[in-house]
Amino acid sequence: MIKNAGDVNAIVLAGGLGTRLRPMVSDLPKALAEINGRPFIFYLLDQLVGAGFRRVIMCVGYRSKQISEALGAQYRNLDITYSREVFPLGTGGALRLVKAQQLSDPVLILNGDSYTDVSYCDFGAWHVNKGGIVSMVVTPSAEPSRYGTVELGPDGVVNSFVEKTAVTGDHPALINAGIYLVQRSFFDLLTEFESVKFSLERDVLPTVPAGGVYGFEAGGKFIDIGTPSSLKAASDFF
């Protein structure tokens, strides 16, 4: 049961190499790419502050020291701790590393390279009401070929994940916005993977028992900074 956001730990996945952005931010981790003179991660953390969160666990890897030096142990009223990868673990492996920490139930997980206008209050209430293992924010996109799509049933249950498909029909497809609320029991699933490096999106989510993943439709703006063109577009977004 979510009483308030301050009781929920937020995990930010920020350990990626950001290979596609190297020509623009060769000396920085992706989370510190500057948007209008501020590191991208500041916008993400400001959103969490505004929603009432109080504890953030940063999953870091590539150039992790730069991130910890930029944020320290506190950002505004957020207490920040770090989970450091010695070598790339993928989003699934990074979460398995966090499993050893004392976590809330549920836990918020979000990608450190994308931003969605979403009401965390509404998302939290919706997650509790559905009673699933995982709730994920989905948002309309005219570019599903970049992200893959999520197909929902009438009650919001995720029926399938479709990798990088072209747009069909008159309506934008729904994509995974990279924001999740998961029950603490979700982390037990991560121990079943033999590989050291694996993906939350491609490997873990499809293994959640049928009916255990729900998609919360957010109608707000969405952007990621994973490519040079989207990084440039972020200046107008914010």
Structure notes:
This protein has 238 residues and is of the alpha/beta class. It has a single domain (5-237), classed as Alpha-Beta Complex (Spore Coat Polysaccharide Biosynthesis Protein SpsA, Chain A). It has eight helices and 14 strands. It has an eight-stranded mixed β-sheet with strand order 5-6-4-1-7-12-9-13, with helices on both faces. The chain has a two-stranded antiparallel ribbon with strand order 2-3. Strands 8-14 form a two-stranded antiparallel sheet. A hairpin with a 5-residue loop joins strand 10 and strand 11. The longest helix has 12 residues, at 40-51. The two termini are 33 Å apart.
Structural key phrases:
two-stranded antiparallel ribbon, 238 residues, single chain, globular, alpha/beta
How is the secondary structure organized here?
Layout: E1 9-14, E2 34-35, E3 38-39, H1 40-51, E4 55-60, H2 64-71, E5 74-75, E6 78-84, H3 90-98, E7 107-111, E8 114-116, H4 120-130, E9 134-141, H5 144-147, E10 149-152, E11 158-162, E12 173-182, H6 186-190, H7 200-204, E13 213-217, E14 222-224, H8 228-237
Parallel strand pairs: 1-4, 1-7, 4-6, 9-13
Antiparallel strand pairs: 2-3, 5-6, 7-12, 8-14, 9-12, 10-11
